[in-house]
Amino acid sequence: MKSALLRNWVAPAAAGGLFTLCFAPYNLWFCAFPAALILLNVFQFGKIKQALAQGWAFGLGLFGSGASWVYVSIHEHGNASAVLAFILTAAFVAGIALFPMLQFAITARLTRRRLSPGLEGLVFIAMWVLFEWVRSWLLTGFPWLFLGVAFIETPLAGWAPILGVYGVAFLLWLTCHALNLSYRNRKSLAALACSATLIVGAWGGGALLQQIEWTTPRGEPIQVSMVQANIAQEVKWLRENREVITESYLTLTEPLWDSDLIIWPETALPYFSSQAGPLLKQLDKQAKENNAALMMGILSADRGEDARINIYNSFIALGQGEGSYNKQKLVPFGEYVPLESWLRGLIDFFNLPMSSMQKGSPTQAPIRFRDATLMPFICYEVVYPDFVAKLAQEPELLVTVSNDSWFGASIGPHQHLQIAQMRALENDKFMLRSTNNGITAIIDPHGRIASRAPQFQATTLSGAVELRQGATPFSRLGSWPILIIATLLLAGALLLGRREQTAVPAAALEQAG
Fold first, then answer.
1. Where does residue 34 fall: left (phi above 0), alpha (psi -120 to 50 degrees), or beta otherwise?
2. How far apart (Å, rounded) are the C-alpha atoms in residues 507 and 270?
């Protein structure tokens, strides 16, 4: 009984917790090795009931520790009591944990006829890659805590512009699988040689790929500045604070007019663009006089065909900038309420300010900046690998604006920044991250933080960045190459496994004869 409890619940949950330590702010990426080895050795191949328990336990460990910031949003900003916030957070974690539960169960089902350890591991790895992808879109998706993100500062990161975040995780798992098989077959020189070749190819190849520049600079670097006003979420939407908040942004911006590009964060001004007409005209004039572009996140609205008012989370450009963008990937409960007719009004959390927004059109053009273009991603949008890749092919600069005050002093903003680093790396372009209270940062095309502002301070961040033209293989093809590789690996492992199973009885009959 104790052995089953340890194997089916404790060990997988512990592995999930270890994976969380791989991500920011801990950045202990090497914890992925013991976590992966635990899973490869305790997983109940061929046993569906046990695999269901293991998958759910793993999910509880991973999301219970890695997505704990959800509690902050519900309790501190959703006005839910500590007990209710804990219950809702636990329900969220339990629901997201169904993804690895289903993944593990299908893996067990596919290996119900016992395969060799080598093939079983390949099935596990292929299913991991495919299910991370599924989690990025099913039921609007929750593309958070993808394992590849944790390896942004390792040689494996060199593969990201080709295979994306799923490909980095794929190579990490192959490395761990090779180490595991090497230990099991440590007396076999052939097995050790094969494992060593794979590991050197993955890590050494990644190091070599890091030297490649997939995009090229265009023109001279430009001077950019970002404003971090540090407005507390609980006071932001109070009408009496509008003038104070506006004045904060104007004061912080005043010394920045010698910059080429100035960026304010998501919903910087706590009112609609239609209500800010005179202010926006003034800022547009001031930006043009200084030959600068000012861009900001702001709410906008229009009237739909059914006469209803549609509200959008928008990004607009003034001065030497031109165009606007409406957010496409909305945050459940924060920007819209699933099952609204049932949930709206039950508790304050289901009635948050601005939780009735509409999606922007999927065919929006990039923002113009002088003779260049940039692509904005508003908050949660930057966590979707393929969504960003599709929109990042032509623009020469990437921008993400966010208001991470929803997550307080939790690990959420640190993880969000690390995800933005991976998007910059996948597309080999500078990423400007402008936030309300941190973490505002300039990210270079290699996914490294060039400079960052301190969290929870009203401040600005300035620096020089390059406009870059061209696209990486990942920008052009998205995740399809690694998904095809994973699918072929899965099919090949199962086919070889079937041959193994038919070969054993034949050999037994021959021996008996």
1. alpha
2. 75
Nearest-angstrom CA–CA distance, 394 and 282: 31
CB contact at 8 A, 156 and 172: yes
**Separation of alpha carbons 339 and 101, rounded Å:** 24
Compute the distance between CA of residue 487 and CA of residue 57 in angstroms, rounded to an integer.
26
Contact between 407 and 73 under an 8 Å Cβ cutoff? The reply is: yes
Which of 379, 396, 429, 466 is catalytic? The answer is 379
Evaluate whether 356 touches 312 at the Cβ level (below 8 Å). no
- Peptide bond preceding 362 in cis form (omega within 30 of 0): no
Kindly tell me the burial class for residue 77, based on how many C-beta atoms sit within 10 Å of its own C-beta (0-12, 13-18, 19 or more): buried
236 is catalytic: no
315 has a pLDDT exceeding 80: yes
Distances in Å between the alpha carbon of 150 and those of 28, 240, 474? Answer: 8, 42, 18
**Catalytic choice (22, 31, 132, 327):** 327
Clarify whether 510 is annotated catalytic: no
**Mean pLDDT across 331-355:** 60
Please say if the pLDDT value at position 7 is more than 60.
yes
Q: Kindly list the distances between the CA atom of residue 350 and the CA atoms of 32, 343, 346, 353, 496, in Å, as whole numbers in the listed order.
A: 36, 6, 7, 9, 51
| Structural tokens at position 355 | 């939780």
Rounded Cα distance, 78 and 289, in Å: 43
User: Which residue in 120, 132, 266, 426 is the catalytic one?
Assistant: 266
Average pLDDT for the chain: 92
Is 327 an annotated catalytic residue? yes
Q: What is the distance between the alpha carbons of residues 185 and 170, in angstroms, rounded to a whole number? A: 22
**pLDDT for 509:** 44
Q: What is the DSSP string of 180-223?
A: HHHHHTTT-HHHHHHHHHHHHHHHHHHHHHTT--SSEE-SS-EE
